[in-house]
Specification:
This protein is α+β, with helices and mostly antiparallel strands and 140 residues long. It contains 4 helices and 5 strands, in the order E-H-E-E-H-E-E-H-H. A hairpin with a 3-residue loop joins strand 2 and strand 3. Bound molecules: flavin mononucleotide.
């Protein structure tokens, strides 16, 4: 198993109506590959976690990176993992996630997303924050 996290900036090509389109193809394609994760829709950025087989995660990321609806795509984390932390989501989306922590998480994620460079501690904090957004108990 492998996990990849990236931050990107929305471009002028992105419009609100794209969200259902993105989720539709993400869920369809990711399901076929057993790629899971979450997508945070921030005011000007996206943060996405992708996890699954390394090959599938990397090919999915390469495809997403070519999408003109976002730019300045920075992969901030890619590492092997023991289990899929978001195994219950082919692609979880902000409104589906843990509402108890969502508002605070979005606020903090927005601050991290503004930065071009994150320290290791900030990346670890962001990972913990993203993990807390999963409303389901982890599938072990
Ligand atoms: C922020 C963002 C996240 C996306 N996430 C995924 C994803 O997880 N999986 C995926 O297949 N496509 C994702 N896409 C869409 C792809 O870039 C691409 O449009 C889509 O996979 C094409 O699907 P199709 O080949 O079925 O037409 C994302 C696009 C954006 C802008």
């Amino acid at each position: 198993m492998y996990q990849l996290i990236y931050i990107s900036e929305k471009t002028q090509n992105f419009e609100l109506e794209d969200i259902p389109r993105i989720l539709y193809s993400a869920r369809l394609n990711n399901d076929l590959l057993n790629v899971t994760g979450i997508l945070l829709d921030l005011s000007e950025h996206f943060i996405q976690v992708l996890e699954g087989n390394q090959k599938d995660v990397e090919s999915t990321f390469t495809k997403i990176s070519g999408d003109s609806r976002h730019c300045n795509i920075r992969c901030i984390y890619k590492q092997p993992t023991i289990n899929q932390e978001f195994g219950n989501w082919s692609m979880g989306f902000s409104p589906d996630l843990n509402q108890d922590v969502l508002q605070d998480a979005i606020h903090i994620a927005n601050m991290f997303a503004q930065k071009q460079h994150l320290t290791d501690i900030q990346i670890d904090s962001l990972r913990l924050l993203l993990k807390s957004l999963n409303p389901e108990p982890e599938i072990l």
